[in-house]
Amino acid sequence: MARRSTNVNALAAFHNFVAKGDIEKVKDFVQGKDRKPGHVRIAVDMQDEDGLAAVHWAAMRGHKNVLRYLVGCSVHMMLEGGPEGNRADPTVQDKDGWSALTWAIFMVEQEPKMHGKEHASKKQLLEVINYLCQQAAVQEYIERSDRLLNKTAGEMADEISQQSDEAITAALKGRWDANKQYGAAKVKKEVQMVDEWREVQMLQKMLADTDD
Known about the structure:
Layout: H1 2-20, H2 23-31, H3 54-60, H4 64-71, H5 73-80, H6 100-110, H7 122-132, H8 136-139, H9 153-163, H10 167-172, H11 186-211
């Protein structure tokens, strides 16, 4: 029981440092005693009671540098003389089927409502999305529906782009450019045209029914 409590506390501390973007403390937990004598080592994909893993926290808080370290930490540890095989899976899902990508997209939608320095800016979140979508393993998950909203990451991104601009659509393709100005989504105009066409069709049907 004491060991389980220690593991839970260590995991909570690890996730807390990931959420804060404290890369040096994150490295202490990932590499353990090989980096810092006596320090506990955490499996990077270990999940809490909600199914959240370190990659989820890094994504939702917009810490691309931490995310890159977690996903590619086998390489980092080889360079730093630490143990191999403790590399994060960027596609790991929580209990609702949300991946790091889903969380980052969701936080872009929520960003205007968020206050406080702990919350990521839209730019930080787009950097995370852009990075994740450059990972081959993530590509096949873009069109998979989650169990909470029953939407795919692509559908969520399309809805956000219709409300703002095409930046998130570019990030979802791994082509987002921080120096580029993105205009309104073309999808929005197309949807509006379809809605107007449907209204015309309904009106014509009502008039036809009246004549009969």
